[in-house]
Sequence to fold (262 residues):
Amino acid sequence: MSDATKAASTPVLELDGARATIRLNRPKHLNRLQPDDLEALLKLFDRIEADPAIRVLVLTGTGRAFSAGYDLNSVAERASSTVEQRSAGSAFEVVADRLEDLGVPTICRLNGGVYGGSTDLALACDFRIGIDACEMFMPAARLGLHYYKSGIGRYVTRLGVNNAKKLFLTAQKIDAKEMLRIGYLTGVVLSLEELDEEVGKLATILAGNAPIAMRGMKHTINQFARGQLDGEAADQRARDSMRGAEIKEGIKAFAEKRPPRF
Fold:
């Protein structure tokens, strides 16, 4: 663990070439998220979007859990806020939606359990790789909380109606094997060493692909999932790609039997 992650703090950003890693960093409390953490995440997302050298983002946690979710005391405080009562969403929803809409591809490195609202943060990532000891549960029904709309939508579109109902309405915990079966995890490994290896492999692949094409296709896929496709805009992105520098380099690299340099 680096010096930057020894003491509890808001999320930590680490840069390694084209790869950015955001590490949730309150390990003594299983990386339970506070309001300050949400503000810090939004700023980090903006920083990543503004840096063209960053091609992939990895989201992970410090210690033995990915995250225990949002601090319940903060939920109670928000519920009594007149500002929050007028709002259709929440600060947590804004963060999850922003993460889903990031232009760069995103990987959630699930180093341990993922609970509550943090299950939606992971779902907002494009890929989720976890160790076989990880587990998850969504306790909203047990807490008397109606979860926010976009979070329920992510569960439904990514996991299906039946799995969304099971997880939300029963509030039962499931293990890594079941998380993989229902599609919550896109990959499972046996150790943290293997986790780093698999995440690194995937990050390298994503960082080496055409960033403009990936950004556009990710946007189109997300719109399809939400049932909100702007077909004209998607068609325009496809036409633009046929005239862009990326396809010229891709075809040239293919002909020369070498990796493309985007």
In short: The CA atoms of residues 213 and 240 lie 10 Å apart. The two ends are 32 Å apart (CA to CA). Confidence is low (pLDDT under 50) at residues 80-89. The chain has two domains: 3-207, 210-255.
